[in-house]
Amino acid sequence: MADKERDGILYGMSWQFTLVIFGGFIGGLSWVLTGCLWCITIVGIPFGLQQFKLAKLALMPFGATVVTK
Questions:
Q1: Would you say the pTM of this structure is higher than 0.70?
Q2: What is the pLDDT of residue 3?
């Protein structure tokens, strides 16, 4: 029983480590996907462009700034 419990703890810790390392990548890809979906319609293009800005910020957090015009 102790081996299964230990394996569960190790699995949970490795999953958390994976999310910390790759979480920004997953988030950035989701921003790109939603940006593409928003850009399908004419009305959604401004929203889609903002999604792409957020994707850039999620993928390159250091040295990137979001500037409003």
A1: no
A2: 64
Low-confidence ranges of the chain (pLDDT < 70): 1-6, 64-66
Instruction: Please say whether the beta carbons of 66 and 57 come within 8 A.
Output: yes
Distance CA 39, CA 54 (A): 15
Q: How far is CA 47 from the centre of its chain?
A: 17
> What sign does the CA torsion over 60, 57, 59, 51 have?
negative
pLDDT value, residue 41: 92
N- to C-terminal Cα separation, the chain: 60
3-state SS class at 67:
coil
Q: What's the chain's Rg over C-alpha atoms?
A: 18
Please report the pLDDT score of residue 2 as a whole number: 58
How far apart (Å, rounded) are the C-alpha atoms in residues 48 and 40? 9
